Amino acid sequence: MASHESPSITTYPANVPNATVNLVKESTAALPPPANTVHHIACTSATAVTSNALDKNFVEHSLSPNKAAESAVAAAISSNKYVKLNVGGSLHYTTMGTLTKEDNMLRAMFSGRMVVLSDSEGWILIDRCGKHFSAILNYLRDGSIFLPDNRYEIAELLAEAKYYLIQGLVLQCESALERKSDEIDPICRVPIITCLKEEQELVRNTRRPIVKFMYNRGNNKYSYTNSSDDNMLKNLELFDKLSLRFNGRILFMKNIIGDDICEWSYYGNHRKVAEICCTSIVYATEKKQTKVDFPEARIYEETLNVLLFEPDRPSPGLIIAHTENNSDNTRITHHCQSDDDLDESSRSHRVRRIHVNSNRPV
Fold first, then answer.
1. Please, are residues 309 and 340 in contact by the beta-carbon 8 Å criterion?
2. Collapsing DSSP states into helix, strand and coil, what is residue 82?
3. Domain limits, the chain
4. Each residue's pLDDT tens digit in the chain (362 positions)?
5. Strands 124-126 and 117-118
6. Which of 5, 208, 261, 266 shows the smallest number of beta carbons within 10 Å?
């Protein structure tokens, strides 16, 4: 039969004073508890601490918005992995070190100071055009980039650099645009003359020499010869070639309302100085036919001659006078009269009119 231990009871003799009994009780209370009691207290304390921590985490998670963008940014900050960026549909991979290398808007975005958006796949969204974002990243990596040759693309890159607050790239783009402003515009603009008033306005207001090409097939009353169509096309191609070659120095314009079919006109100092007529009437058959020629050498010659009327260049009359003054006195000087030496009434009669069929001025 199992024996049950009864709890020990301390008894004191009747002759022990009460003060002594109280002292013994206080000493007994000061002794450490048994081992099983200490283990029970420790487990209870650990359970309480764990419960408090879980409650705290639960409260924090319940109070946070728990957005996918914040988790993506937090993961990128806490690790050294690549960041996935979706800039206007253009996808880019880079590191947090690149994005936070300089004090700019990208650093503010990925330092928690700004709200960012991301999709379900973890791509962080930036609502900008991604055309020049590769150049933005390359500048942040290297500190300098090669700018595009086109100044319009440089202007676009400048707008992106200002948006992302990358001051170094802003200065580089502005400096390049200042240099580009002194260069000749690579775009060749050819005005189309639709009335006589437009032609007069252009001739009066421009300081550059002018080459006008008149092309109007509707003026033909007869049939063309076999080679006329090919020669007409050659004239058009040469006009395009010259307008590109001398862009910025000569103003090229087309006339589609004139009376002739194919004609070149040259202007200098606000007046006509020469013209080349490329059409003629022939009687090779029983019927009259219109013939269009391609006087390439004449066209080149008059185009080069009209360059003498460029701005900030001495007039031909002054050049001749300067040559005569510097020549030897014993040398016979042939006096040449220039159009600039004539009065206003005589200038209209000094236009060089060249007809290709006769091959000489008339």
1. no
2. strand
3. 69-181, 192-361
4. 444 444 444 554 555 455 444 544 454 544 555 545 444 444 444 444 444 544 444 334 443 445 566 666 655 554 466 889 999 999 998 988 888 888 888 888 887 778 888 888 889 999 999 999 999 999 999 988 999 888 889 999 999 999 999 999 999 999 999 887 766 556 778 888 888 888 888 888 888 999 999 988 776 777 888 888 899 999 999 999 999 889 888 999 998 887 788 899 999 988 999 999 998 888 866 788 888 999 999 999 999 999 999 886 655 555 555 555 655 444 433 444 444 554 544 444 467 777 666 444 43
5. antiparallel
6. 5
